[in-house]
Amino acid sequence: MELSPCDRMFHAPLLNCHILSIIGLNAAVDPTVLKFGLQQTLIKHPRFSSKLSINERKMKWTPTIVNLQDHVIIPKVDPKMDSPDQFVEDYVSRLTTIPTMDLSKPLWEIHILNIKTSNAQSICVFKIHHSIGDAVSLMSLLLASTRKKSDPKSLPTIPSRKRAGSNASNGFMWMKLRTIWNTFVDMILFGATILFLEDTKTSLKGSSSRVDLKPKRVVYRIVSLDDIKVVKTKMNITINDVMLGVIQAGLSRYLNHECGDNDQKGEKEKQKKINLQKKTRLRATLMVNLRPTSGIQSLETLMSKESKQKKWGWGNKFGYMVLPFETALQNEPLDYVRQAKATVDRKKDSLEALCSFRIATLIVNIFGAEVASAVAHRFISNTTMALSNVVGPIEEISFYGHPIQFLATTVYGHPHALTIHYQSYFNKMTIVVAVDPDVIPNPHKLCDHLEESLNIIKNAVLDKGFDAA
User: Fold this and answer.
1) Cα–Cα distance measured from residue 313 to residue 36, given in angstroms and rounded to the nearest whole number
2) Do 35 and 72 contact (CB within 8 A), yes or no?
3) Cα 186 from Cα 4, distance rounded (Å)
4) By percentage, how much of the chain surpasses pLDDT 90?
5) Which residues does residue 128 pair with via DSSP β-bridges, in sequence order?
6) Do 398 and 147 form a contact (C-beta atoms < 8 A)?
7) What are phi and psi of 69, to 5 degrees?
8) How far apart are CA 322 and CA 126, in angstroms?
């Protein structure tokens, strides 16, 4: 089976992307049990039992025999080491220093770290080439490989919802006209970003043209999903609105904190720098799932649609959207959430993501994957960060008999010094930050600001004592 245009882009030198999924478990991993589970589920999937073949500039998936010994990696670790969290962080960072995977075998591997950390009894790290599939595809496959903790014979409940539309109550024709106008404006800005429109240089944006080749430092912070739901309920918005508001607040606090730390010219100069942040152009490249049903779908559904309706089935079915952030310090913490909601509502009335997907496909088909990846590389380089979210299972699950404590997913190989993913699971939300340490030397400080921003916003909502929308 030939690779899709998007899949081919992820093998171009300028956009060679990999997905890292960190799974924290509540028990030590039994390698024999895990390998047996992989044999019964994962490697039966065509993408995980095929290698990439390149012949006369054509790329296709070729079925092969999977040797699990080549894919399940179990390094020797000292269970009594002084800093297990640091060891895991360093280990994951080293995985990002390997620019390509061995094309003689399927492009995935799993690393088992039987070491107790502050959040888990053991860690599994999946490394998967992005050409195999996007977050929705891979999460669907993961859920198909797990079972409910409360009922080991039952598959997890799959969170799924119809794609949200505009909340506007105006007439149908006006909504269509607004969508057309918003799409036109967004695509003009999209083109300008490719050509010349670059974000402001800040302590979050890398200056190197090949940030994608640098090792990344991956850290994560687990927060309460219930805290997020408090804000969601009180303000009558979505979890995604809340998280974008939290990220906007956290980035603002981080940027202004950096200005204050680096300034040696007194309070007036500090205030001047803080005010200058209001003029900062800071945008995120947001990856948007284009399937008709948002959220996670059953593996059976995705695989059946791959054969019957390829454009919505397995693989990479997402488009890019530019999401602007305001980085000024707000006197009212809830203003961060209101601004984020307004921005997202505006973007819902736009076909920017779909258009970017169609344009990328067209460029690949006409000029080739390398040209398309060069265009995407330039576009991404002119924005500050990548942003994505993954909806996880709503109940506790086990991975081949090993109870899961948390899920943390990220990606590397694209030209951003900062990538933020947020991943829900049961009653938790994991905020995952992947950075170029030369640009952001202390990503834990950024996580501190994000967590503190959530607490400030939650407390502000509770202090209101009424609907804050």
Assistant:
1) 27
2) yes
3) 26
4) 62
5) 19, 108
6) yes
7) -60, -25
8) 28
Catalytic residue among 111, 130, 377, 414: 130
What tens digit of pLDDT does each residue of 73-104 get? 999 999 889 999 999 999 999 999 987 788 89
Closest by Cα among 390, 391, 447, 397 to 25:
397
Buried b or exposed e, range 335-358, using 16+ CB within 10 angstroms: bbbbbbbebbeebebbbbbebbbe
CB 204 within 8 A of CB 251: yes
- C-alpha–C-alpha distance, residues 435 and 420, integer Å: 9
pTM: 0.89
Residue 254 token pair: 């981080």
What count of other Cβ atoms lies within 10 Å of the Cβ of residue 246? Answer: 31
Residue 237 corresponds to which amino acid? Answer: I
Q: Give the pLDDT confidence of 296-320 residue by residue, as tens digits.
A: 555 555 555 444 445 446 778 889 9
Establish whether 449 is a catalytic residue. Answer: no
Phi, psi of 345 (to 5 degrees): -60, -40
Q: Are 318 and 288 in contact (CB under 8 A)?
A: yes
Pull the structure tokens for residue 92: 């994951």
Those residues whose C-beta lies under 8 Å from the C-beta of residue 465, and which sit 6 or more positions away, are none
Radius of gyration, CA atoms only, the chain: 22
Q: What are 236's two structure tokens?
A: 């009558």
In the 3-class helix/strand/coil scheme, how is the chain assigned residue by residue? CECCHHHHHCCCHHHCCEEEEEEEECCCCCHHHHHHHHHHCHHHCHHHHEEEEEECCEEEEEECCCCHHHCEECCCCCCCCCCHHHHHHHHHHHHCCCCCCCCCCCCEEEEEECCCCCCCCEEEEEEEEHHHCCHHHHHHHHHHCEEECCCCCCCCCCCEEECCCCCCCCCHHHHHHHHHHHHHHHHHHHHHHHHCCCCCCCCCCCCCCCHHHCCCEEEEEEEEHHHHHHHHHHHCCCHHHHHHHHHHHHHHHHHHHHHHHHCCCCHHHHHHHHHHHHHCCEEEEEEEECCCEEECCCHHHHHHHHHHCHHHCCCCCEEEEEEEECCCCCCCCHHHHHHHHHHHHHHHCCCHHHHHHHHHHHHHHHHCHHHHHHHHHHHHHCCCEEEEEECCCCCCEEECCEEEEEEEEEEECCCCCEEEEEEEECCEEEEEEEECCCCCCCHHHHHHHHHHHHHHHHHHHHHHCCCCC
Structure tokens at 344: 């997202």
Comparing 16-30, 44-58, 191-205, the range with the smallest average pLDDT is 44-58
Average pLDDT rounded to a whole number, residues 13-41:
92
Q: Residue 340 in contact with residue 244, Cβ under 8 Å?
A: yes
Using left for φ > 0, alpha for ψ between -120 and 50, and beta otherwise, residue 120 falls in beta
Question: Residue 156 has which token pair?
Answer: 């997890």
Tell me phi and psi for residue 265, to 5 degrees.
Answer: -110, 15
Tokens of 272: 């001047």
Amino acid at 432: V
